[in-house]
Write a structure and sequence with these properties.
196 residues; alpha+beta; 8-stranded mixed beta sheet; disordered C terminus
Length: 196
Amino acid sequence: MERETGFQQVLAGPGLRLEPLAAGHAAGLLAAADDEVFAHLPYPRPASIQEMRAWIEAARGEPLRRPYAIVTGQGVAGTSSYWYPDPVRGQIEIGSTWLGRRWWGTGANAEAKRLMLAHAFGVLGFAKVAFRTDAANARSRRALERLGAHRDGLVRRDWPRPDGTWRDSVYYSILRTEWRDGTGGPPPDMGVSHSS
């Protein structure tokens, strides 16, 4: 119960906020989305406000997913999610992350991931955070490696694409004992800065 309450918190950093995904984010997400943004995602781009609201409801309805909107001073930049919380293995995945092209190269992705990592380790109490990305998405792989994620391996034919082909996925992970929050500092204690 305490961990589930932790998923409802707004995570705030110097340049953005992660808010639990809600219908009110639909217009901003629709404005941020385009075909290039969705080029490596395993689901089609919502093309209307109704489709985006349905996409949000589907994301919120996934029992093993906790989705967030990435919100900056310029509006809704994109989304990211926690996936597959596993208390037995002490592991959770961060994925389904996408940002509008306006925010590419601005540091928004790294800041959002750092907030989620610090929250996963320091508040939710997980020992391992996993990631997976399309093997063809070099930009995403470089971003994970800059965060300090360890490449665990390649899984072939891992996920179906909207066009009927299958993607290979590269898996990465960061252990709580390895996490340096992007600053070179020690792993977090059991508290991080967040707002509710």
